[in-house]
Amino acid sequence: MNWNNWFRQVHRWLSIAFTVAVIVNIIAMVQEKSAVWVGLLALLPLGLLLVTGLYMFVLPYVTKRRDAGRTGG
Known about the structure:
The chain has helices spanning about 5-30, 35-40, 45-70. The protein is mostly helical and about 70 residues long. It has one domain. It is rod-shaped. It comes from Rhizobium pisi. Keywords: Membrane, Transmembrane, Transmembrane helix. This is Membrane protein CcdC involved in cytochrome C biogenesis.
């Protein structure tokens, strides 16, 4: 498995973890048992989603520039 596929797979699993964390947060708010750690539960997957998402966003531009440099264009 190359790096691009690995980042995509990690991004997919992080999105599932983020969704679960948001659902847990909503349930805790409805039950009025909201603790600080429940509110912060979604921040870790969200931050990692940001990193992997930015990597996948920039990747086509980097490869395009790299390929243009090789062909002399």
